[in-house]
Specification:
Blueprint lengths: L7 H13 L6 H11 L14 H6 L2
Amino acid sequence: MFKHQVVGKLLEDIRKAANKGLVLGNERFVGEVEALTGKALREGKRGRRTGWRKENTLN
């Protein structure tokens, strides 16, 4: 039970982070957690990186 009701954008952010396994907090906090875990815990861009096809043809 929470002392205050959590609604709106904060609730959406909590759900999104929990569902995607991300860290919720400011940049400094997220960076510290990433450093401790050795994992990227921020939401990345969707899709392939620009130039990926060129990298694959070099092999």
